[in-house]
Design goal:
- The chain is of the alpha/beta class and about 230 residues long.
- The protein has nine helices and eight strands.
- The chain has an eight-stranded parallel beta sheet.
- The termini are close together.
- The model has no long low-confidence stretch (mean pLDDT about 95).
- It binds 2-phosphoglycolic acid.
- The site of 2-phosphoglycolic acid has 13 residues, from β8.
């Protein structure tokens, strides 16, 4: 199982270090991914099944892109896992499928692990599963789904940060459709909590979770890893 924490715009250098140090002292079998803010990246001494990744990057090695972070800056911290296509970047920060593909191709050329996020907004969900899947497949336009370092995260937009998780049946339906074409690990994300993670991880075709809000407390995150280990 893959248990990932997306810090978004939370935690600073000191609290990120405390968080990672705490997780590092735990013994577990699950694959753990932690995505802190750029400013908290550091040379962490990590046990092999933990990786620290970047929430975003600009698809260049280096250059003149004021305010952006390229791979020269990520390479300094040996970052080899990145989030791409998160709904907050698509819908709040205005990333287009074209710019997302540029990031995807760049990270792929760098042989990075990519956690690629897809998911439908509420108005599409209301139209039923066919509309949902056609919306999601469009988010795979020009994306190489056979990339061996790919992990796909299904995260319905209306479930992110709202406390409203998708139902187990809804998650299963989407993951089953994705699994028919996509052979890489499939995660679910959207208001996953300590109380709900077990049932979600037990869904057929669910290989892990991407957690925001409920993961920012390290004790909660560690509990989620423990639940995953004990499945
Ligand atoms: P959430 O965020 O757990 O706060 O809903 C999930 C995500 O954005 O990956």
């Amino acid at each position: 199982m893959i248990i990932a924490s997306n810090f978004k715009t939370n935690h600073n250098r000191a609290t990120t270090k405390e968080f990672i140090d705490f997780i590092n002292t735990q013994h577990f079998f699950s694959e753990v991914r932690i995505f802190p803010p750029f400013t908290a990246l550091d040379d962490f001494d990590l046990t092999p099944n933990i990786k620290v990744g970047a929430q975003n990057f600009f698809p260049v090695q280096k250059g003149s892109f004021t305010g952006e972070i390229g791979f020269e800056q990520l390479d300094e911290f040996d970052i080899d896992t990145v989030l791409i296509g998160h709904s907050e970047r698509r819908h709040i920060l205005g990333e287009t499928q074209k710019s997302i593909c540029q990031k995807y191709d760049f990270a792929k050329a760098k042989e990075c692990e990519i956690v690629y996020c897809v998911g439908e907004p509420q108005e599409i969900r209301k139209q039923g599963i066919e509309a949902v899947m056609s919306y999601i497949w469009e988010q795979f336009d020009s994306i190489d789904i056979n990339y061996e370092e790919l992990i796909v995260a299904y995260e319905p937009v209306w479930a992110i940060g709202t406390g409203l998780s998708a139902s187990l049946d809804d998650i299963k339906e989407v993951l089953d459709s994705l699994r028919a074409k996509i052979k890489v690990p499939l995660l679910y994300g959207g208001s996953v909590k300590v109380e709900t993670i077990k049932d979600i991880l037990n869904i057929e075709n669910c290989d892990g979770v991407l957690v925001g809000t409920a993961s920012w407390d390290v004790k909660n995150f560690s509990k989620m890893i423990e639940i995953s280990d004990n499945l």
